[in-house]
Write a structure and sequence with these properties.
Length: about 160
């Protein structure tokens, strides 16, 4: 049994080392899925919807599907069409990164939808309002500073 465990561990280490060029992408996608899952559970708790084992098992399916897609695209990118794409861009593994970006956008949008339901309002509108308000306040503060820094050239007497 010990030899089997050592063999499996060795194979996992070799596989993880082989995937070194895309480890960051795989970890990032995994973290996005985890964050989306946490927000989904929070939403379910807030809305008092039932959490089922089928719903939770879809997380595993999504994780495996996304990671497998990225690894497959990376192999195609690296061994088949990477040199052709390299003619047009100097970004290594461009196709892999493009697919990862698309998957990331899907997860981010799902997270936004969950946040919308948790908060009860459109999160983007809230963020936009905060940014606009902050920008207006910064402009107002800058005007006040300019007024303080600008010396009064009048001597206070009327001619």
């Amino acid at each position: 049994m010990k030899n089997l465990q050592d063999g499996i561990l060795s194979m996992l280490i070799v596989a993880w080392t082989w995937l070194a060029p895309i480890q960051g992408i795989l970890i990032s996608i995994g973290l996005l899925i985890l964050a989306d899952t946490v927000l989904g559970l929070w939403k379910s708790k807030k809305l008092k919807t039932k959490i089922t084992s089928r719903g939770l098992s879809s997380i595993i399916s999504k994780l495996l599907l996304y990671q497998t897609a990225i690894i497959t695209i990376w192999m195609i990118d690296k061994h088949i069409i990477g040199s052709v794409i390299g003619i047009f861009t100097e970004i290594p593994f461009f196709l892999t990164k493009t697919v990862a970006a698309c998957i990331s956008l899907v997860e981010l949008y799902s997270m936004k939808e969950n946040l919308d339901q948790i908060v009860g309002r459109d999160v983007w509108k809230l963020i936009k309002g905060l940014i606009t308000r902050s920008a207006d306040e910064i402009i107002d503060i800058k005007k006040r500073i300019d007024e303080i820094d600008t010396p009064d050239t009048s001597d206070g007497h009327k001619d």
